[in-house]
# Entry
Amino acid sequence: MPDTSLLRGLIVVLATYAAGAAWYMLNAWMPATPRADEVYGAGLIAFTLPTAAAFVLLLFDTFESRRPLWSREPGDRVATERIVFRIIMFIAGLHGLVLSLVTEVPWVRHWGLQLSFLLIGGLLVSVGNLLPKTRPNVLVGIRTPRSLRSRHFWIEINRAGGYVSVALGLVMIVAAIVLGPPLVMQVPIAAALAAIGILVARYFTLARTSEQT
Amino acid sequence: MKRAEPSPTVFRALADPTRREILQMLRKGTLNSGEIADQFDATWPTISRHLAVLNAAGLVRSVRHKQEIRYELNTSVVQDLAHHLIELVAALPHAEPARPKAKRGRARPQEA
# Structure
């Protein structure tokens, strides 16, 4: 059965537009205080993130259908499509958070920072989990000249990237649940720097190994 | 719809030590079924069946390379962790393959 990630992604994009439109009309009828829309513009708040989600979906579909250079095998797209769906889900979640914040939902206002870290952590875990299943493509993964040249190197470095991403995501989720400000920001930033360092070191180790073989 | 995350098929595939060994071999790079079969005492059709199970579970992928079909690792991070966890449990000294339990209760008295 074909994977339905892109179709589900389209449904989520339409839902985010619907949520934005509903908020736009509600805001015109019953403005929130203080008026966030006066600072940023109601249209911008309501439709920027849905448009970003639509752009991600469109970009992926356009690139993948017009540049089949990296999609050598029929199953190569599946993991990438699933990752694109997760990115769209993340944008939809962020949109919901932004709308709740500007509407002054009390508990969202209080937990806004933690919720945004939960969202980012969730994205890192779910995308990182699928990263080793990706194959050379135009949008998702660790794309360097070396990884695009060698399929084996791509698999290896994206496997390492997947592990690092899942670990970093879990740190963010735990920090969001357990820690309050300012540690909720400091711990993930320190973890992100460590993750980048580990990944760069792994990249050069793998590159050296592949040169020797 | 086919699920990406560990399903009963994935765990069934990981339950067999030969299949886990194949996954371990594929970490070093792609191999064809003949190269994999050379590493085991089992016959080539047996290894092919194991590869088919792994392929159905989405843990490996077959890729056509010139005239031959090569297999490459296709596990997610969670599936990798499940693999390592099962390996760890299987390596424990008390871990033995499950055997069918003997029937409980008294044996029927033999008729005179």
Observations:
- The first helix of chain B runs from residue 8 to 15.
- Chain B has a mean pLDDT of 80.
